[in-house]
Amino acid sequence: MSEKIIIRKILPEEYSFMEEIMCEAIYHPDPKNSYPKDIIYLPQIRVYWDNWGEGNDDHCLVAIIKNRIAGAVWIRSFQEELKGYGYIDGQTPEISIALFEEFRGKGIGTVMMKKMVALMKSQNYAQVSLSISKGNPAIHLYERLGFRTIDENEEDYIMLLKLTYPDFQ
């Protein structure tokens, strides 16, 4: 990608963007037959974006290209009664990432993930988890970054990245 990429923290006036980007974060194996947009309002998905910025562990970075948000990477911690798909425990935030289609496959996601991991390390997080659908090609990105599968179910893998590894790049 030849355009300049700026990665920065999301601004409070952009918090409503979390609702829009959540639609892009949901993987569907058949893009021609994708999920309806209102899927993001299901309680088990809504927990990832609703009331953004109110939690102590709500951190989001956005990628800006030509003065436009191209994507976002964010973390949020959950408690047992309200948890995400990749829940480990209340001290382990889950990470999510999404790029609008035109920006995918250009290395932007890798840059965003590395910046978020650096932010998490600077805030002394020990680890971060995620849930990824089986068949989602992004699994290779996560493996390259050091995430390891620690559990699985019929549809998803739960992956974990220990942030204390000295070899993370």
| Count of strand segments | 7
Tally of DSSP helical segments: 4
**Strand pairing plus helix content: what structural class?**
alpha+beta
How many structurally independent domains?
Answer: 1
**What would you call the quaternary organization?**
single chain
Distance between the termini: 21 Å
In CATH terms, what is the architecture?
Answer: 3-Layer(aba) Sandwich
Order of helices and strands: EHHEEEHEHEE
Overall spatial form: globular
Key terms for this structure?
4-stranded antiparallel β-sheet; 169 residues; Aminopeptidase; alpha+beta; 3-stranded antiparallel β-sheet; globular
Layout of strands and helices, then pairs:
Elements: E1 5-9, H1 17-25, H2 43-46, E2 59-65, E3 68-76, E4 94-99, H3 108-122, E5 127-133, H4 139-144, E6 148-152, E7 156-162
Antiparallel strand pairs: 1-2, 2-3, 3-4, 5-7, 6-7
